[in-house]
Amino acid sequence: MSAGKYEGRTVLVTGSSRGVGALLTRHFLDEGAKVVGVSRGAATCGHERYQHRQADIADTDAVQQLFAALRRSGTAIDIVINNAAVLTSQYALVMPASAARSMVELNLLAPFMVAREAAKMMRKTKWGRIINISSMAVALEPEGDSVYAACKAGLTTLSNVLARELAAFNVTCNTLGITAIESDMLRQLPRDKIDAVVARLPLPRYASFEDIANVVDFFASERSGYVTAQTLYLGGVH
């Protein structure tokens, strides 16, 4: 049996228990990687190359404790997928401050903390890939998504600055803006609203997991060492 493309690599996936995170976890395992899955809930994946870490990465102390535990276990991270996110879609006039704060903490501060701690490991090995999962909301700016879209726009800027700071260590940092895909997050929104947003895309259809995996594999590839500070949106969004 031939080795997978990620044989010998260890991938950390946040939000690994469901949705896109669960699909990416399975994808990397299928391609030979070891995977560290991180979520607030219990593990939903059972595999000999999978280890689960239960943590609320919106808590900065929890992120530092997570990476301290990984170091103690001798686990070095090669690839990071900052996927975990929360969405409260409400008009600004009725958006609770607590909901806005939760989005900032999980959608922007948490990816920074995870990327920073992983980069400390990557600096030692002189190789790394950081891939941040963004959203079409940045470009399409749908009503009700002011804070969510702002966080995801900030994620792109975060990626671009980190790409400069980490380039000397052979660590790349890129962003993938995904369109609507069947997931728990999507199911909490009115389907007619999502259908209307998708209809505005140059390629007006829902994303498949293969669409997402294609770009993730490109950014994570050994051959993409000269690709950094890039944002790629699916569906023709720009």
TrEMBL record:
Organism annotation: Rubrivivax benzoatilyticus
In terms of PROSITE patterns, this protein maps to: ADH_SHORT
Gene3D superfamilies xrefs: NAD(P)-binding Rossmann-like Domain
Q: Where is the signal peptide?
A: none
For this chain, the family text in UniProt reads: Belongs to the short-chain dehydrogenases/reductases (SDR) family.
Q: What is this protein called?
A: SDR family oxidoreductase
| InterPro entries hit by this protein | NAD(P)-bd_dom_sf (IPR036291), Sc_DH/Rdtase_CS (IPR020904), SDR (IPR050259), SDR_fam (IPR002347)
Pfam families reported for this sequence: adh_short_C2 (PF13561)
Q: What domain of life does the UniProt record list for this protein's source?
A: Bacteria
